[in-house]
Amino acid sequence: MSRVASWLGERLPISGAELRELTNEPVPNHLKRWWFALGGTPAYLFVVQIATGILLAVYYQPTPRTAYESVRYITDQAAYGWYLRSIHKWGATLMIAAVVLHQMRVFFTGAYRKPREINWFVGMLLLFTTLLTGFTGYSLVYEQLSYWGATVGSNIADQVPFVGKLAKEMLLGGAAYNDRTLSRFFVLHAAVLPAAIVALVATHIAIVRLQGVTEFRFRDEPEGKPATFQFFPDHLYTELIIGLILMVVLSALATALPAALGPKADPLATPEVIKPEWYFYVAFRWLKLFSGTVALLSMGFIVFVMFTWPFIDAWLRRTTRLEEVSVYVGIVGVFSIIGLTLWEAIAPH
Ligand code: HEM
Q: In sequence order, what are the residues at sequence separation of 6 or more whose Cβ sits closer than 8 angstroms to the Cβ of residue 280?
C-alpha cells in the first residue's frame, strides 16, 4: 500500500493533510437543517438524470418517424426501460421542485444580499437552464401533447422582439416543426444544456466556497458552543442520507406512478387542450391572461426583476427603511405562482 502511495505521491504531489484541508471546510450549524442545505438536492438529482439519461439515449432515436416508437420500446420492452424512464421523469420533476425550494430558502433568508448578488445571478441562470432542459426533454417523446407543447413554445419565442424569430428558427431548424427539429431538441437536451448546468453549478459552488454560506444564529443554539461543524465527513454524511432517502422516494414514485405514453403526435390534428408540463403552468396562464405583446413584455419585466432582485431589494430597503420588504414581496410572489399554477391545472382551457 505504501509503495502505491509513494508511486502516486511522486506523480500527484498532494499530501493527505492538504486534501483534508481542502475538503474540511467548516460549515455553519444551520446547514444541519435540510431547508438550509437544499442546494445539494438538485445537484444530487442532476447526477441521477445524467446516469438515467445516458441509458435512455442508448435506445432513443430522435426523428419524427422513430422517436415515439423508440420511447414505446423503452417503456414496454427494454429491460428495466420503464423503470429508468420513470426515474428520469420523476427526477426532472423533483429537481425542478428542489431548485425552486432552494431559491425560496435563499430568498426568504435574504442570503442573496451583498456580497452574494453574483451567485444569485448564476442561480437564476441555473433555474432557466433547468427549466429549458425540462422543456426540451418533454418534447423528445413525440406524443400529441409534447409535440403541440413544443409548437406553442416556439411560437411564443417567435413573438419576443428582435431575437424571437431567429431563436425559433434555430430551435426548430426551419420556419416550422420539421424532420430536423427533434435532433435539435435532443442535442440541446442531452449535450448543450447539461454541459451548461455542469459549468454553472461548478461556478455556483466555487463562489459558495469562496464566500462561505451566509451565517445565521438561532435562538435555540446554546451560547458558547462552536457555531460550525466539519464539511468532511459530517456534512457529507448528511448529504449521503438525503441522497439515499431521495433514491427511495424516486424509486417508489417511479414504481407506483410510472411514466405513461399518450397518443403519437399528429401534426395535422391540433388537440382541443394543449398543456405544458406543470412547471410551465404559471407562465402559460399568464400568457393566456393578457394579449400577446402585453403578456410577453410583462413576463420579460418579471424575469428582469428576478435577475436583478438583489439590487432592487437593496434600493427598496434604502428608500423605504423597511428591513424585510423582500418578505412581503416574496409572499405575494409565492401566492401568485401557486394561484396561477392551480388555476391552469384546474381550468379546462
Ligand atoms: C441546479 C440548481 C442549483 C444547485 C445545484 C445549487 C446548489 C447550491 C448549493 C450546494 C449551495 C450551498 C448552500 C445550500 O445548500 O443552500 C447554494 C447556495 C446558494 N444558491 Fe444555489 N443552487 C442551484 C440553484 C440556485 C438558484 C435558482 C438560485 C437563485 C436564483 C441560487 C442561489 C444561491 C445563493 C445566493 C446561494 C448562497 C446562499 C447562502 O449564502 O446561504 N441557487 N446553491
A: 131, 135
